[in-house]
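To close the chapter, one final illustration. This time we ask the reader to focus less on the individual chains and more on the assembly as a whole: which components sit near each other, and how the overall shape emerges from the parts.
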Amino acid sequence: MRRLTPYLLALPGWMWLAIFLVVPMAAMASVSLQTGNAIDGFAMTFSFSNYGDALSTYSTQLLRSLLYGGLATVAMLLIGYPVAYWIAFRGGRRKSMYLFLLLLPFFVSFVLRTISWNFLLADNGILFGTLKDWGLLPEGFHVLATTFAVVGGLTYNFLPFMILPIYVALERVDPRVVEAAQDLYATRAAAFRRVVLPLSLPGVFAGVLMTFVPATADPVNAQILGGTSNTMIGNIIQTEYLTNLDYPTASALSFTLMAILLVGIFVYAKALGTENVLEAAAR
Amino acid sequence: MNPFMRGMTQPRTRRDVFRLAGASAAGLALAACGVQGQKAAPPKADAVADFWAKQKKNGKVVFANWPEYMPEDKGPLEKFKADTGIAYEYKEVIQENAEFFGKADPVLRAGQSLGYDIVVMTNGIQLQHMIDLGYAVALDHSKLPNFQANAGQKYKERAYDPGNKYTVPYTSGVTGIAYNTDYVKDDITSIEALFDQKYKGRVGMMADAQEIANFGMIALGIDPEKSSEADWQKAGEKLKAQRDAGIVRKYYDQSYIDAVSKGDIWLSMAWSGDVFQRQLAGEPVKFVVPAEGGTIWTDNMLIPKGAANPLDALMLMDYLYQPAIAAELDEFIQYVTPVPAVQDLLREKAEQAKGEEKQTLDDMVNSPLMFPSDADYAKLRSYTPLTTQQEQVFNPIFQSITQA
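The assembled structure is written out below.
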């Protein structure tokens, strides 16, 4: 009995996974191979061509999503690392307050936040309207409905998920380790590069994962901030599912996206050297 | 290192992988039976009579509608409550047909109730699905005396629901062109303005496949209601050229109206009532039905399958067709009412009113957006009714433009 106890305790967790992850995934895998329409019903035909058709029709949007997700992730890293570093090492007694301020805008709903960017960045809105009145910007200048707006929106919306893990990793770096490096004649730059940066890599790794995956699949930013050719794969899946009721195509696209992201993550984990990351974390 | 990350990054044993695969295979077998089709034959007349004979008044009705489609004081519903003793719940839960249907379909497919007794949907693909899939309860016209007496003839002869078997209109509106008079100094009269290089990057088009298809066809002089696949292809080419020339800024949903009134876009495809409400708020927007034509659509009330209070719902539908009630409703929502008598009622009210209120009421009575004349109606086209097979040709043509 005692040997069974841990399994029994874990049972609710396993049931949860089975019911809400495995079964829906299996159902989706099944639907992705069916043919038919919503009115007459779908039947299993093992039509693997659903994948080929979906991919050839929407390869542009799929590649664009990976590109936007990647660009946003890089931007978040460039913005997020210094912020996390500053809070961890220069935050002093007010660290918690800075973190709270960072999270404050994110108490507002995701969609609403994105719509308020729409308001802020309007062609003749409070920002650009003023600059245009001062003659600092040409009349036709606009940011909305461009690639820049979509990538910027993604960057803004997922930024805390980059900062928080990096902050947690940096916060655990013992300042005495840095002192020791400097005692051993490391310059400040060298101490950062050889000591602080490697110790913070687990945070960077987690941050990239937690931002790249949702940013790539996000439909909201492209819809609200994008223009005529900024459609991302999330928008396509949404349309196929809700408007066209083409469940097989939507499922095939979802699986393809998931496969690409999983492969990407494993390649990335290998490239960054998961072992090193884990070792650094264990210390 | 948090446990989530460890789980993601630590190697799994081969046995784990096999287990996972086994579980997935079991799930796959479970799910392989397919998604059931629900295409329903129309119910027989006596089955409909039986259904309604069994219904009793429950004293309660739940009405699901679009935003800004009911006066804030809920006047018409309050009067209904006072006259019939039926309590109401009014929910503004429908924002878009496709989205609403996408959410409702799995619930209705599983044979469950939506929790609404009346829903309002625009004529088009999704409403067609509701009817074809048997999701709409056939109405008992012996219990709709006000509708018979007061609905305009046009609203009793609609191609998408002949004989009002499943639906009665809530209100109609027109899709035309809205423009911002701060930026567009010319009077816009032609649909060609939407395709004019002069407004490059300043034109808004709608993302909805049927809406944009209609405008593509009207611009080519094709009547959408009588269009063929070849016509859709031609319209698709015209719209693609418009996009590739950089004329379109974005394909919009409901948010187009904010973009026009802020000046992000200067002119756009638009729904009449939206523009009218903005004008009253003092914004520099104007609405025009293009000389080549616009589209007229109708939002319809229907009782979804599994509704808890169908008889109460039917009574409310009929109640809204009393001219006085319809007038009160239309004075607020400012779309096209299916009850023609409303125009006279509002005219009488205008005669007794004074000052600003009189002016507003006079504007309403004379507005072609609320009371289109026969000449106005002659310029208005309807959506193409599509079969499921046609839809699978139609949608990709226009979605490949709006979702490039």
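Chain A has twelve helices and two strands. The radius of gyration of chain A is 23 Å. With these observations in hand, you are ready for the problems at the end of the chapter.
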